Amino acid sequence: MRFEVTQVLDAIERHLTTESALAQAVVDLGQVAWYGALDGGRPVSLLRVGLLVDALARHLGEDAVMIYAVASRDLLTDADLTSKERMVLGRWSGDGVIEVVPVLADRVPEVADITGLPVVSIDGFPGLERRYPWLRGVPERVLQLVPGEGEARIVGGYPLPAEGRANLLSQIWRCARRDCPLFGDRRAYTQAVPRMKSGVPVCPRHDEPLTSVGPRPPSVTMVLIVDGVIRDRFVVRAGRPVVVGRSPDDPTGIVIGGYLDGSIAQMISRNHVRLELRDDGLVATDLSTNGTVVRTPGLTGSYGLGEQVHLTNGVPYLLGPADTVELHSGVTLARADRIPGGTVGGQSSVMGEAPTMTIRPLG
Ligand SMILES: [Zn+2]
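Above are the sequence and the zinc ion SMILES. Below is the predicted complex in structure-token form.
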């Protein structure tokens, strides 16, 4: 049983990020872990975060949902956590998978305000609507987590990308502590969201002023769609090409073999296509044996009426804003802000291996 819990926590971890370019919603991890009514179980449980991931996947229609999770130190020291949960939380904190802050205060709406992301909440953050008017004024940015029938549900709208505070995210910020998991040396290209204190950006973890070390390279967030299901989400940054394939040689490549059936996996090369963000836009280069096709949707948005181009192996091709890159029929890369219609979510569950007793049906 412990082994299964470990697998669920590992599955949950793949949906947590402190990279603003990847995240889709901001949440207070403690609020979810302490939400006993969600499953009627223990006072605190990290498995509830899995219920949230599944609920958000169904709500947003995407199985690769990424959550920016903030936790206060109180959660990490909660005596009711299992030793396994405490260990995993400590690891997530140390690796920068989640953001741990001494005091939560308004941190969750603040991250949402700076990034333009929606929040997932239980209570809608009463008392903070004066500072963050969108908590009341733009209800689709406030997604409510509620108990469902043997699962959890999200009640709310389908938030469109909102305007964040781009000036704060256009810089690379550094924490005075070089080993900082959020703004330290190892976050050269990705980083968390600064906290504002009296108008000065500070490290949310260490509460010390951040220094700007220059502009942040532009980036494009992409999704992998397999048979209509969004399976993965990744970022292509200027100067950092990304290879996508069955099992790319480059360790930073996007490995898609695990999402494919055997016969289709055989049609995808280990290094299939390279994406690169240049000054003139996003460029795809076919590296494969069986070829790569770029599709441009027609005016109706129907792919049947659009154009298609078979890429010439090794020759870079400049993609249009709505173009999709097809590695094989049903295996497509698209920009995360231009996902073609017809995708579905909730096809897989991070709770797949959870002991059934932890997700008792309600009632
Ligand atoms: Zn720091």
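The CA atoms of residues 134 and 164 lie 12 Å apart.
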